[in-house]
Design a protein that fits this description.
Length: 135
C-alpha cells in the first residue's frame, strides 16, 4: 500500500473544544481534581492529528494511532476553551509523526509527539473481526 504523496511534513491540523464537567479528571476516572483531564487532552491531540491528514488519505485508507509521548503541564478549569494543533513532522512510508501542542486561553497546557500508521480500512477491520473467532 502506498501513502498519498500529499502527505508531506508541514501539514497542520487543529481542533478545539470547551472544557465541560464531562471532560474533567473525576468524570473520566483519571483523578479527583476538577480540571481538564489528561485523557481528554490526549483525545483532542489525536483528533488534531487526524484532522491534519484525513483529507489527504486515499479512498479506503485511514490512520491509526500507535504511539503517543505526552506531557500535560497546566491545569484548565471547566468553562475555558482548549485547542490542539498537530504538525506533521515526518513521513516514513506508512508511518506519520506529529508534533502537537495544546493550549487553553491562557497558556500552553501540553505537548506531544504522536505516531500514526496509514492502513487499508477494510483489511484492518477484517483482522479485528477475526479476533472474535479466536476467543
Amino acid at each position: 500500500m502506498q501513502t498519498n504523496s500529499a502527505l508531506q511534513p508541514g501539514l497542520e491540523g487543529r481542533t478545539a473544544t470547551i472544557v465541560t464537567d464531562a471532560l474533567t479528571a473525576p468524570a473520566v476516572g483519571s483523578g479527583s481534581v476538577a480540571v481538564y483531564a489528561t485523557p481528554s487532552m490526549v483525545a483532542l491531540m489525536e483528533a488534531a492529528a487526524v484532522t491534519c491528514i484525513e483529507h489527504h488519505l486515499a479512498p479506503g485508507q485511514t490512520s491509526l494511532g500507535v504511539h503517543l509521548d505526552v506531557s500535560h503541564t497546566a491545569g484548565t478549569p471547566a468553562g475555558l476553551a482548549v485547542s490542539a494543533t498537530a504538525t506533521l513532522t515526518a513521513v516514513d512510508g506508512r508511518k506519520l509523526t506529529f508534533a502537537i501542542e495544546a493550549h487553553d486561553a491562557v497558556e500552553v497546557i501540553g505537548r506531544a509527539t504522536h505516531t500514526r500508521i496509514v492502513v487499508d480500512t477494510e483489511r484492518f477491520m477484517a483482522k479485528v473481526a477475526a479476533k472474535l473467532s479466536r476467543q
